[in-house]
Write a structure and sequence with these properties.
The chain is of the alpha+beta class. It has 11 helices and 11 strands. The strands form 3 sheets. Strands 1, 2, 3, 4, 5 and 6 form a 6-stranded antiparallel beta sheet that branches. The chain has a 3-stranded antiparallel beta sheet with strand order 7-9-10. It binds adenosine-5'-diphosphate, 2-acetamido-2-deoxy-1-O-phosphono-alpha-D-glucopyranose (GN1) and magnesium ion.
């Protein structure tokens, strides 16, 4: 069914006016829907069911978590329609619609917000950190065992390395020779990949309910106040470590250039933004974070950035089946920006440790 027919199945208030592709996500197909004579707008999404094969479990996770968060935000007398994601059911009352191999769902569009691809203001990034810290703190009482593991081993960096080695061995599209430097970069760092996985396994850091995809374009910033008001893209909410959530915002937000910048001289790690995020995150999470987690925050940033680079490289070697691409080397270009950031963070790691300690409250 085409998107126009699908949109009519959802319980939008009024006659559909326009439907247009929207946003810059790498995974799902997102559309903005406007309706005639109604202030409200909607986000309609076709989930990537190749990646999210367990879309029923995924939607159940989202329903549980959004209901839980709504109750908290309501108690705080805040505007639930702006601070929480609101699922819009189909006219039959279902939270998604299955059309052959496709799964569709809709949300209320949160108006008057901005999504950044590059952060240019420490104040906005501090607010972003506070919102993500608060997100984890609010979910502290949520029973992690009630959630399904949407993508098994999603942030198991050792498993990601194994998948990279398999893709390299298969070299199915003959690209390994064009990525020798990047392949060596990964292999040189194979011993550091297990730090978070090991700490979780040994019980040194807790397994929590985490977002797992906290890049900066997954938070909506109020256009007028600059406050980070609503965390979106809840597809990967599942048990995990807060180090990955912290790290992925740093990976994306402290980059002075876009994730797919070809000119690596523009890519750098902005340590003042790191400090701003740390301050906000530690404020938002309050006393829910452990000392061991604080000690490992810099490692979270380095490892998730390395992991993300490995994932882009693996997808490049595999023939680009996972991330959306605009041109054949897109994933290799993305991988290179991530590795440049890893190098810079390695150089700055002592400063990063001091900043986290300074920002703790
Ligand atoms: P993907 O998984 O492909 O990244 P997202 O759920 O992040 O998809 O949506 C893509 C983009 O659509 C976001 O980066 C954001 O700009 C926009 N978006 C998604 N949901 C909303 C919403 N409820 N209100 C406003 N904008 C939204
Ligand atoms: C994807 O969905 P999106 O574009 O917010 C990916 C993340 C990566 C990110 C890299 C489900 O995020 O894990 O870190 O791209 N999401 C999934 O930009 O794989
Ligand atoms: Mg997204």
């Amino acid at each position: 069914m085409n998107v126009n027919k699908i949109a009519k199945l959802f319980d939008f208030q009024g006659e559909i006016d326009t439907i247009a592709p929207y946003g810059e996500g790498h995974i799902n197909d997102t559309f903005l829907v406007t309706v005639k004579g109604c202030e409200k707008q909607y986000i309609l999404q076709r989930l990537n069911t190749k990646i999210f094969s367990n879309f029923r479990g995924l939607m159940d996770n989202i329903l549980q978590v959004t209901n839980y968060l709504r109750a908290i935000v309501e108690k705080e007398n805040k505007d639930v329609s702006r601070e929480c994601m609101t699922l819009i059911p189909t006219k039959n009352g279902d939270i998604f619609f299955v059309d052959g191999a496709d799964c569709w769902r809709a949300y209320l569009f949160v108006k008057d917000t901005i999504v950044y691809q590059i952060i240019d203001s420490p104040a906005v990034f501090e607010n972003t950190g506070e919102a993500f810290g608060k997100f984890i703190a609010r979910l502290d009482g949520f029973d992690a065992s009630a959630l399904c593991e949407v993508i098994p081993n999603f942030h198991n960096t050792c498993d990601r390395y194994g998948k990279f080695l398999s893709a390299l061995k298969a070299d199915k599209v003959n690209r390994a020779s064009s990525a020798e430097k990047e392949i060596a970069f990964v292999n040189d760092r194979k011993n550091m990949l297990s730090a978070i996985v090991d700490a979780l396994e040994k019980g040194e850091i807790p397994l929590r309910v985490t977002h797992n995809d906290t890049k900066i374009n997954n938070v909506l910033i109020d256009k007028f106040t600059g406050k980070a008001i609503c965390i979106i893209d809840l597809d990967t909410i599942m048990p995990g470590s807060l180090l990955y959530d912290f790290g992925d915002s740093i990976r994306s937000g402290c980059n002075t250039a876009l994730e797919d910048e070809k000119d690596l001289s523009k890519v750098d790690f902005d340590i003042s933004l790191y400090e701003a995020y740390c301050k906000g995150f530690l404020k938002g999470i309050g006393d829910k974070i452990t000392q061991k987690e604080i000690d490992m925050l810099h490692l979270g940033a380095i490892i998730i950035t390395l992991e993300c680079g490995i994932r882009f490289l693996t997808d490049y070697l595999d023939g680009d089946g996972y991330f959306k691409i605009d041109y054949p080397e897109h994933n290799l270009v993305r991988c290179r920006t991530q590795f440049k950031l890893v190098e810079r963070m390695e150089q700055l790691s002592n400063e990063m440790i001091k900043i986290a300690e300074k920002c703790r409250i």
